[in-house]
Amino acid sequence: MKPDVPAAQPLISSDVEAVLAAAGAVVAGLPLGRESRILRRIVEGAQAGVAVLDTELRYLYVNPRMAGANGLPVQAHLGRTLAEVLPGVRRAEEVLREVLRDGQPRRLVGTGSTQAPSAFAHREWRATYHRLEDDHGKVVGLVGIGLELTEPRQYLRELERAHQRMALLDTAAARIGTTLDVDATCGELADFVVPGLADAAGVELFLEDRPGGRQRTPPGVTRLRRAALSVVPQLRARFREIDLAGVYLEYEAGSPVRERLDAGQSWLHDLAAGEVPPGPHADRIARYRAAGVHSVLVSPIGTEDRLLGTLSMVRVGPSPAFTREDAVVAQQLAARAARALDRAFRYAREHAMALELQRALLTEPTVPHPNLETAFRYLPADDTTVVGGDWFDSLALSDDRNLLVIGDVMGHGVEAAVAMSHYRSMLRALADTGLRPHEMLQHADRMVADSGFDRVATCLLALGDPRVNTVSYANAGHLPPVRLTPQGHTEIVPLPVGPPLGTGFGSYETVTRPGVPGGTLLLYTDGLVERRDEDIDDSLRRLTRLRLSPRDSLEKIVDDVLAELMSGPAEDDVAVLAARVHRLTHL
């Protein structure tokens, strides 16, 4: 125990010190009366350590607390000097002799260790020493009263570390899982732990074997793909030859890493100790060592139901080795990331299903009568997380009539794609009944509302009748069509707008307009014109400023429309359907 610079303040209150000083006088050789025996019992049961030394600094008495702190029985203290019991306290002896000389109490602060076993590598004590005098004022020795501060201070340090861990986890909740993209979430986790917890970190995901796939996993081997890698800047060149994002890792059954991961526990390894173990990764381990990696920590990333992957971290050069506390923090971070990754995985599966369903359902429209030429385009949103419910159709009806349909289911995802198929099938069935356009919409609206289906949709119908050279429209909450005249002018066809389908409040109207010989009719969904920072009227006016040639093919006209209006990333799905009378002189 090494004393710090002494101070002249007592450690505890003067009243208690007076009691202990009196007890010290008693045990120093004075007769023990009833009062003294009470005082001794108080001293024996005190939480503070008490020691009485003679003028030669030999122990005359220690209470159980002091004996326990020093790691020796009470009897082993008696008659021995302070230096014999606690080696290395020469400086303390000098301070205590000053107390004997001038009678001023002094406080000693000591750090180090004693013969007492302790879970703490660093211990600390504080003790105040008073001079003892008999009734005649003769100096008879010293009494010391001390407390070990190791445990309280260790508790405070643990509490501080716990607060730091909680702050770290709170920060992780805001920085990990900000998107529904799997690889982006892996990158956020790897970047979060570097450099705070590791010099380099990778996030690996388990692979599922696919029949006929190029990456086949041998029996009993778990394969992972490294989805993200983060390295402190000063080590990137050194790590470039070791690992790159996208590398595949394999853990054999029975290997230490595999056993820990299967048990849902972290694997902590000192890479600097021992020889490189033989195996498929011996070369990589050797390269790790050559790069200065000395400590490895691999934590499982998993939910209650399944294991998703691993968080692998390394420390290099002067960085301290990973500890069990680091493993606890890493596993807590991995658990937070697992929830975000699980959401991203589920969304990715749902998104893929929605895309496949949408592609399957959004087939080419049925072939119209030979008197009508059509062209169409469907563009998904640039944001691949958005799967819309846009659809279009062209139906050949009796008496050479043609029905054009375009619609947009509100919402996104699998539900929107399924709803789109319902609306499309329903309107195809209604088109064969001979109903007028507004009657088709009314029946569709009522059928959807009565079924309890909760996905509303906008829809526009355009029915061309060559017998009278007209086009009849009915609109359920959709944007109006645009007509390209033979002279090259684009104009919006004004129509009354009813509520979207599926509300049950449908009241629609059929409006008939004369056909325009040589003209082109454009139907579209809102993704073509709507912008977040633009009024819808301004968006529609942009349609009237399109520079289109009526003599171009419909394919080129549709492409020109998209080229002029889709200059930036598409915020929503876009569907465009163009129609032009062929052979006959009506639209």
Structural notes for this entry:
The protein has 587 residues and is α+β, with helices and mostly antiparallel strands. It contains 16 helices and 22 strands. The protein has helices at 14-27, 34-44, 64-70, 74-77, 82-85, 90-102, 150-175, 182-193, 236-239, 256-262, 282-290, 324-361, 414-431, 437-451, 536-544, 554-565, and strands at residues 2-3, 49-53, 59-62, 106-112, 123-133, 139-148, 200-206, 221-231, 248-252, 267-270, 293-302, 307-316, 372-379, 389-396, 402-409, 457-465, 470-476, 482-484, 490-492, 511-514, 520-524, 574-581. The strands form 4 sheets. A 6-stranded antiparallel sheet has the order 1-4-5-6-2-3, sandwiched between helices. Strands 9-8-7-12-11-10 form a 6-stranded antiparallel sheet. Strand 18 and strand 19 form a beta hairpin. Helix 1 crosses helix 2 (34-44) and helix 8 packs antiparallel against helix 12. The longest helix is centred in the middle third of the chain and has 38 residues, at 324-361. The radius of gyration is 42 Å and the shape is elongated. 37% of the residues are buried. Residues 1-21 and 209-214 have low confidence and may be disordered.
Short note summarizing the structure:
By secondary structure, the protein is α+β, with helices and mostly antiparallel strands.
Q: Which structural category do the helix and sheet elements fall into? A: alpha+beta
| Largest sheet composition | 6 strands, antiparallel
Helix count equals 16
Amount of beta strand:
25-35%
**Helicity range:** 25-40%
Radius of gyration: 42 Å
Low-confidence regions:
1-21, 209-214
The total of beta strands comes to 22
Give the CA-CA distance, first to last residue. 103 Å
Name the shape in a single word: elongated
Q: Strand order of the main beta sheet, please?
A: 1-4-5-6-2-3
Rounded average pLDDT: 80
